Amino acid sequence: MINTRARFADKKKLTLQLTSLLDMFTIILVFLMVSFQSSDEDFVLHAGLMLPASSAKSPFKPGVNMAVTHDAVFVDGKKIYPLLKGGKVTDEAFEAGKIEQIVEAVTTTWQKQKKEKDAEQIVLIQADKGLSYRTIHLVMKSAAHAGFYRFRLAVEKE
Asked: Does the pLDDT at position 41 exceed 60?
């Protein structure tokens, strides 16, 4: 007596059904293409700044924009605090540990921006590469007094 299962197994060879597999991959691909979201931040470089170069490729999210030039500190394009010749801060401001005008401007700007969906409590600093560490440190410390502990320094892509 011959086993009927063995007889059917010899006649019908199993094959991989690629049609349904390709349909599934097409649906996944279309779903990923539709749900992919890319956004560019409107970022305007302050006039007269020479940014340091970097090869980093990570995007940044919106935050409070601050520019530090050799003449002044700007928050969202508004001149907030004038600097001494060569982009230096006064000894009084450095001893105080903060620049009160920057603290107020950053706080006010954040109050307006935090209503946006993607806004993060981050300060994006554009600083000329020729500025002293002391100036940048005091600007960052002033932002920290306003409650900002995360910073991104704007750089130029290589």
From this structure: no
